[in-house]
Amino acid sequence: GPFPGASPLLEGLNPAQLDAVTHTGGPLLIVAGAGSGKTRVLTRRIAWLIDEGHSPFEILAITFTNKAANEMKNRVQEQVGSVAQRMWVSTFHSACVRILRRDANVLGYPSNFTIYDQADAQRLVGYVIRDLGIDPKRFQPRAVHNTISSVKNEGLGPEDFADKAMVITEKKAADVYLEYQRRIKQAGAMDFDDLLLNTVHLFRQSPEALESYQRRFGHLLVDEYQDTNAVQNELVVKIGSNHRQVTVVGDGDQSIYRFRGADMRNILQFEEAFPDTTVVLLEQNYRSSQTILDAANSVISQNFGRKPKNLFTEAGPGDRIVKFHADDEVDEAQFVANEMAR
After folding, report:
1. In the chain, how many H helices and how many E strands?
2. Local structure of 167: helix, strand or coil
3. Vertex 308 angle, CA 304 and 309, to 5°
4. Contact criterion met (CB below 8 Å) for 1 and 8
5. Which of 204-213, 271-280, 289-298 has the highest mean predicted lDDT (pLDDT)?
6. Are strands 219-222 and 59-63 parallel, antiparallel or unpaired?
7. Residue 330: pLDDT band by 50, 70, 90 thresholds?
8. Closest residue by Cα to residue 45 from 66, 24, 74
9. Which of 187, 169, 183 is nearest to 131 (CA)?
């Protein structure tokens, strides 16, 4: 352990990981490279907060997938016991569902609102296109739904989008959005994007609701912050703005959800919202050899608008890199599979 009599929670952590796990007071941004143990840091941080006397129920931990949420619950359970299963460790969407089940009536929705999945939402867009007499060949329901979805993730309602729409495709999409939104609300339903957007609307319209969640969640932790969109960003900033006990983990060099309106801006916006953010860089990698990391570093150093970090390892240089030029993705996959088999 780092020092005699230290908690087993802190065992086996490198100095940067230790700083992140035991950070006290104020906003924390953990900039973590791939393979640098960020899940471990988040899990141990949650356990450490509980160890320090915070109630497990005043912690809201957000991950990007249900799978990651379950994994995190199980890992926290190893540290703190079965109470972990009853904690708010969830995706943005499921946390929002829980909030809206309690308060949706403020927004004129029933508390037992229906949730439309992707297929339901696309089907409704199709009906609206048909009923508005728009050509479904030129304006395919799937494409129009994607537009509506990304507009919602930027935090824009139908009227906002209509005001911004310049070209004919956007103007048509704005017409569809308006009617789509009217119908889905009339049906007492929300689509996936509404879950996030309506929670933001709730917090904007009802200071009481916002305040009750600000009081309830004394600590907020968010993983994969580079993949949040504008709406998720606003949720985090709103809930955290009072006590400011907010920990976010982000790697600006590997945004996998960039196509959903996520990007590096969030990490920079986080620091604008919380100017006294402490930044901890997790640069020690536990997955790859130094040769691979040097190559990765030289590629990602070209990325625009990133936070500088240099991955390093104690695993030694490892084998030299082989360059393989593939004809297409099938060829590439075949090469990788053959190499692994070899």
Report:
1. 14, 8
2. coil
3. 135
4. yes
5. 204-213
6. parallel
7. confident
8. 24
9. 183
Tokens of 342: 């070899």
Cα separation values, 326 from 37, 101, 176, 330, Å:
31, 50, 42, 8
Residue 81 CB coordination number (10 Å) = 11
- pTM equals 0.78
| C-alpha–C-alpha distance, residues 149 and 145, integer Å | 6
Please name the residues in contact with 260: beta carbons below 8 A apart, sequence gap of 6 or more.
150, 153, 227, 229
The per-residue DSSP string of 209-232 comes to: HHHHHHHH-SEEEESSGGG--HHH
Closest Cα to residue 17, out of 38, 46, 48, 1?
Answer: 38
Location of structure tokens 């619950």: 73
Cα–Cα distance between 145 and 60 in angstroms, integer? 31
What DSSP state is assigned to residue 57? Answer: G
Q: Supply 237's token pair.
A: 């900033």
CA atoms of 321 and 261, how far apart (whole Å): 33
**Residue closest to 34 by CA, chosen among 328, 319, 334, 311:** 311
Confidence at residue 4, expressed as pLDDT on a 0 to 100 scale: 47
